[in-house]
């Protein structure tokens, strides 16, 4: 099955690309044997290299307590206070 899918991908994919002086992009698309379409976009620019697709996994949202800790740390940093100063009063 693996070789069959690989052969299918190699023989049925479509691609396009473009570039400028500061960025480059391309895309690849194909259809899985079950009929599911797949589109991947590749971009390299001043923000680095990234791949974009609805098929890529995304991280779970952070829980509320983690967001609260991040906000608390941001507030301390804005006040010029380090973690050890906040923790030990130094």
UniProtKB/TrEMBL annotation:
For whether the record's keyword set contains Methyltransferase, the answer is no
Biased composition, Low complexity: where in the chain?
15-29
Write down the PROSITE patterns for this protein, in alphabetical order. CHIT_BIND_RR_2
Question: Which is an annotated Pfam family here?
Answer: Chitin_bind_4
The molecular function terms of the Gene Ontology recorded here are: structural constituent of cuticle
* InterPro entries listed in its UniProt record: Insect_cuticle
Keywords, sorted A to Z: Cuticle
- Disordered: region residues: 12-34
List all membrane-crossing ranges: none
Q: What is this protein called?
A: Cuticle protein AM1199
Q: In which organism is this protein found?
A: Portunus trituberculatus
């Amino acid at each position: 099955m693996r070789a069959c899918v690989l052969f299918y991908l190699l023989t049925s994919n479509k691609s396009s690309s473009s570039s400028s002086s500061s960025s480059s992009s391309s895309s690849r698309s194909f259809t899985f044997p079950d009929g599911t379409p797949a589109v991947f976009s590749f971009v390299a620019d001043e923000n680095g290299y990234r791949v974009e697709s609805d098929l890529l996994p995304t991280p779970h949202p952070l829980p509320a307590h983690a967001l609260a800790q991040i906000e608390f740390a941001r507030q301390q940093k804005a006040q010029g206070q380090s973690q050890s100063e906040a923790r030990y009063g130094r």
